[in-house]
Design a protein that fits this description.
31% of the residues lie in helices and 21% in strands. It is an alpha+beta fold.
Protein backbone atom coordinates (compact mmCIF):
# COMPACT_ATOMS: atom_id res chain seq x y z
CA UNK A 1 0.00 0.00 0.00
CA UNK A 2 1.31 3.46 -0.91
CA UNK A 3 2.58 5.38 2.10
CA UNK A 4 0.53 8.55 2.61
CA UNK A 5 2.28 11.55 4.14
CA UNK A 6 0.37 13.61 6.68
CA UNK A 7 0.01 17.33 6.48
CA UNK A 8 2.14 19.21 9.00
CA UNK A 9 0.49 18.57 12.37
CA UNK A 10 -0.23 21.24 14.92
CA UNK A 11 2.45 21.04 17.61
CA UNK A 12 1.47 22.25 21.08
CA UNK A 13 2.61 22.07 24.68
CA UNK A 14 1.74 19.09 26.88
CA UNK A 15 -0.77 21.26 28.76
CA UNK A 16 -2.53 22.32 25.56
CA UNK A 17 -2.57 18.72 24.30
CA UNK A 18 -4.14 17.56 27.57
CA UNK A 19 -6.84 20.23 27.30
CA UNK A 20 -7.69 19.16 23.74
CA UNK A 21 -7.64 15.49 24.71
CA UNK A 22 -10.04 16.05 27.61
CA UNK A 23 -12.39 17.94 25.31
CA UNK A 24 -12.44 14.97 22.94
CA UNK A 25 -12.96 12.61 25.88
CA UNK A 26 -16.31 14.26 26.56
CA UNK A 27 -17.46 13.33 23.04
CA UNK A 28 -16.06 9.80 23.39
CA UNK A 29 -18.06 9.27 26.58
CA UNK A 30 -21.19 10.54 24.82
CA UNK A 31 -20.62 7.98 22.07
CA UNK A 32 -20.12 5.20 24.63
CA UNK A 33 -23.41 6.03 26.33
CA UNK A 34 -25.18 6.24 22.97
CA UNK A 35 -23.75 2.86 21.97
CA UNK A 36 -24.91 1.29 25.23
CA UNK A 37 -28.40 2.70 24.68
CA UNK A 38 -28.45 1.48 21.07
CA UNK A 39 -27.41 -2.02 22.11
CA UNK A 40 -30.17 -2.07 24.71
CA UNK A 41 -32.75 -0.98 22.12
CA UNK A 42 -31.48 -3.64 19.74
CA UNK A 43 -32.08 -6.35 22.33
CA UNK A 44 -35.60 -5.02 22.87
CA UNK A 45 -36.63 -5.39 19.21
CA UNK A 46 -39.59 -7.74 18.61
CA UNK A 47 -38.91 -11.13 17.04
CA UNK A 48 -40.31 -12.92 13.99
CA UNK A 49 -40.81 -16.67 14.07
CA UNK A 50 -39.06 -18.47 11.21
CA UNK A 51 -41.76 -20.65 9.66
CA UNK A 52 -39.89 -21.77 6.54
CA UNK A 53 -37.60 -24.81 6.63
CA UNK A 54 -34.15 -24.03 5.23
CA UNK A 55 -31.81 -26.89 4.31
CA UNK A 56 -28.27 -25.90 3.38
CA UNK A 57 -25.36 -27.81 1.84
CA UNK A 58 -22.16 -28.23 3.86
CA UNK A 59 -19.09 -30.45 3.99
CA UNK A 60 -21.10 -33.27 5.59
CA UNK A 61 -24.11 -32.89 3.27
CA UNK A 62 -27.49 -31.43 4.21
CA UNK A 63 -27.60 -29.03 7.18
CA UNK A 64 -30.69 -27.36 8.63
CA UNK A 65 -30.88 -23.89 10.12
CA UNK A 66 -31.34 -25.53 13.53
CA UNK A 67 -28.15 -27.55 13.01
CA UNK A 68 -26.13 -24.33 12.59
CA UNK A 69 -26.85 -23.37 16.21
CA UNK A 70 -24.45 -26.13 17.25
CA UNK A 71 -26.23 -26.75 20.54
CA UNK A 72 -26.36 -23.05 21.45
CA UNK A 73 -29.42 -20.80 21.59
CA UNK A 74 -28.08 -17.89 19.53
CA UNK A 75 -26.76 -17.79 15.97
CA UNK A 76 -25.14 -15.08 13.85
CA UNK A 77 -25.28 -15.84 10.15
CA UNK A 78 -23.03 -13.75 7.94
CA UNK A 79 -24.33 -13.31 4.41
CA UNK A 80 -21.01 -13.84 2.64
CA UNK A 81 -20.96 -12.56 -0.93
CA UNK A 82 -19.97 -15.61 -2.97
CA UNK A 83 -22.20 -16.33 -5.94
CA UNK A 84 -22.35 -19.45 -8.12
CA UNK A 85 -19.42 -19.60 -10.52
CA UNK A 86 -17.23 -17.14 -8.59
CA UNK A 87 -13.59 -18.14 -8.20
CA UNK A 88 -13.18 -16.19 -4.94
CA UNK A 89 -15.37 -14.74 -2.24
CA UNK A 90 -15.84 -11.01 -1.73
CA UNK A 91 -12.65 -9.32 -0.37
CA UNK A 92 -14.66 -7.18 2.08
CA UNK A 93 -16.56 -10.22 3.39
CA UNK A 94 -13.22 -12.01 3.68
CA UNK A 95 -11.83 -9.10 5.71
CA UNK A 96 -14.74 -9.40 8.15
CA UNK A 97 -14.45 -13.17 8.39
CA UNK A 98 -10.73 -12.90 9.16
CA UNK A 99 -11.92 -11.63 12.56
CA UNK A 100 -14.15 -14.60 13.37
CA UNK A 101 -12.01 -17.59 14.31
CA UNK A 102 -9.88 -15.72 16.84
CA UNK A 103 -13.02 -14.51 18.62
CA UNK A 104 -15.11 -17.69 18.40
CA UNK A 105 -13.91 -19.30 21.64
CA UNK A 106 -15.14 -16.24 23.49
CA UNK A 107 -18.55 -15.71 21.92
CA UNK A 108 -19.25 -19.45 21.75
CA UNK A 109 -18.65 -19.54 25.51
CA UNK A 110 -21.32 -16.81 25.66
CA UNK A 111 -23.94 -19.01 23.92
CA UNK A 112 -23.44 -17.68 20.38
CA UNK A 113 -22.63 -19.67 17.25
CA UNK A 114 -21.47 -18.31 13.89
CA UNK A 115 -21.92 -19.52 10.32
CA UNK A 116 -21.27 -17.98 6.93
CA UNK A 117 -23.89 -18.59 4.23
CA UNK A 118 -23.39 -18.08 0.48
CA UNK A 119 -25.28 -19.04 -2.68
CA UNK A 120 -22.29 -20.71 -4.34
CA UNK A 121 -22.42 -24.52 -4.24
CA UNK A 122 -20.40 -26.05 -1.42
CA UNK A 123 -17.79 -27.59 -3.79
CA UNK A 124 -17.01 -24.02 -4.99
CA UNK A 125 -16.84 -22.63 -1.44
CA UNK A 126 -14.62 -25.37 -0.02
CA UNK A 127 -11.34 -24.57 -1.87
CA UNK A 128 -11.55 -20.89 -0.98
CA UNK A 129 -12.28 -21.65 2.67
CA UNK A 130 -9.28 -23.98 2.78
CA UNK A 131 -7.08 -21.37 1.10
CA UNK A 132 -8.03 -18.79 3.72
CA UNK A 133 -7.51 -21.30 6.59
CA UNK A 134 -10.87 -20.53 8.19
CA UNK A 135 -12.45 -23.08 10.53
CA UNK A 136 -15.90 -21.56 11.18
CA UNK A 137 -18.99 -23.19 9.70
CA UNK A 138 -19.80 -22.18 6.12
CA UNK A 139 -22.68 -23.58 4.08
CA UNK A 140 -24.37 -23.08 0.72
CA UNK A 141 -27.91 -21.72 0.47
CA UNK A 142 -28.01 -22.17 -3.29
CA UNK A 143 -31.00 -24.53 -3.22
CA UNK A 144 -33.07 -22.38 -0.84
CA UNK A 145 -34.80 -19.00 -0.68
CA UNK A 146 -32.68 -18.00 2.31
CA UNK A 147 -30.64 -15.27 0.60
CA UNK A 148 -33.71 -13.75 -1.00
CA UNK A 149 -35.73 -13.88 2.21
CA UNK A 150 -33.00 -12.07 4.17
CA UNK A 151 -32.08 -9.36 1.63
CA UNK A 152 -28.69 -10.85 0.70
CA UNK A 153 -29.35 -11.51 -3.00
CA UNK A 154 -31.37 -9.66 -5.61
CA UNK A 155 -34.14 -11.65 -7.26
CA UNK A 156 -33.92 -11.97 -11.05
CA UNK A 157 -36.55 -9.23 -11.34
CA UNK A 158 -34.67 -6.92 -8.94
CA UNK A 159 -31.39 -7.59 -10.72
CA UNK A 160 -32.96 -6.64 -14.06
CA UNK A 161 -34.34 -3.43 -12.53
CA UNK A 162 -31.03 -2.56 -10.84
CA UNK A 163 -32.84 -2.11 -7.52
CA UNK A 164 -33.60 -4.41 -4.62
CA UNK A 165 -35.06 -4.27 -1.12
CA UNK A 166 -31.83 -3.91 0.85
CA UNK A 167 -31.06 -2.41 4.24
CA UNK A 168 -34.83 -2.13 4.80
CA UNK A 169 -35.58 0.04 1.78
CA UNK A 170 -35.52 -0.08 -2.00
CA UNK A 171 -31.95 0.66 -3.01
CA UNK A 172 -29.81 0.91 -6.12
CA UNK A 173 -27.52 -2.09 -6.39
CA UNK A 174 -24.23 -2.63 -8.16
CA UNK A 175 -24.39 -6.41 -8.12
CA UNK A 176 -26.56 -9.41 -7.40
CA UNK A 177 -25.00 -10.32 -4.04
CA UNK A 178 -24.99 -8.01 -1.02
CA UNK A 179 -23.30 -8.27 2.42
CA UNK A 180 -24.98 -8.39 5.78
CA UNK A 181 -25.72 -10.49 8.81
CA UNK A 182 -28.78 -11.92 10.55
CA UNK A 183 -29.30 -13.01 14.15
CA UNK A 184 -31.47 -15.93 15.23
CA UNK A 185 -32.62 -17.37 18.56
CA UNK A 186 -33.72 -20.95 19.21
CA UNK A 187 -35.85 -21.63 22.28
CA UNK A 188 -35.80 -24.86 24.33
CA UNK A 189 -38.60 -26.44 22.28
CA UNK A 190 -36.72 -25.81 19.02
CA UNK A 191 -38.64 -22.82 17.65
CA UNK A 192 -36.40 -20.39 15.76
CA UNK A 193 -36.86 -16.62 15.69
CA UNK A 194 -35.26 -13.89 13.58
CA UNK A 195 -34.28 -11.09 15.97
CA UNK A 196 -32.02 -8.69 14.04
CA UNK A 197 -30.24 -8.05 10.74
CA UNK A 198 -27.58 -5.58 9.64
CA UNK A 199 -26.45 -4.54 6.18
CA UNK A 200 -24.07 -2.17 4.36
CA UNK A 201 -21.87 -0.36 6.92
CA UNK A 202 -23.71 -2.05 9.77
CA UNK A 203 -21.08 -4.77 9.66
CA UNK A 204 -18.27 -2.36 10.57
CA UNK A 205 -18.91 -3.08 14.25
CA UNK A 206 -17.41 -6.54 13.64
CA UNK A 207 -14.23 -5.21 12.01
CA UNK A 208 -11.75 -5.20 14.86
CA UNK A 209 -8.87 -4.06 12.62
CA UNK A 210 -10.71 -0.78 12.07
CA UNK A 211 -10.76 -0.18 15.83
CA UNK A 212 -6.96 -0.15 15.81
CA UNK A 213 -6.63 1.86 12.60
CA UNK A 214 -9.13 4.52 13.68
CA UNK A 215 -6.90 5.35 16.67
CA UNK A 216 -3.87 6.44 14.65
CA UNK A 217 -3.09 9.70 12.78
CA UNK A 218 -3.36 8.29 9.25
CA UNK A 219 -6.69 6.58 9.91
CA UNK A 220 -8.09 4.27 7.25
CA UNK A 221 -6.36 5.86 4.24
CA UNK A 222 -9.30 4.86 2.05
CA UNK A 223 -10.15 6.22 -1.37
CA UNK A 224 -13.45 4.34 -1.14
CA UNK A 225 -15.06 1.78 1.17
CA UNK A 226 -12.47 -0.93 1.94
CA UNK A 227 -10.30 0.28 -0.94
CA UNK A 228 -7.10 -0.79 0.84
CA UNK A 229 -8.26 -4.27 1.87
CA UNK A 230 -6.79 -7.37 0.22
CA UNK A 231 -7.16 -11.09 0.87
CA UNK A 232 -4.88 -11.79 3.80
CA UNK A 233 -2.66 -14.04 1.66
CA UNK A 234 -2.02 -11.21 -0.82
CA UNK A 235 -0.57 -8.46 1.34
Amino acid sequence: MKNIELESPKIVSQADWLSARKELLVREKELTRLRDDLCSRRRELPWVKVEKSYVFEGPQGKVTLADLFGGRSQLLIYHFMFGPGWEEGCPGCSFLCDHVDSARQHFEHNDLSFAAVSRAPWPEIAPFKERMSWTFDWVSSGNTDFNYDFQATATPEEKAAGKMFYNFEEAEIGGEEQPGGSIFYKNPVGEIFHTYSFYARGGEELLGAYKFIDLVPKGRMETGPLSWVRYHDRY
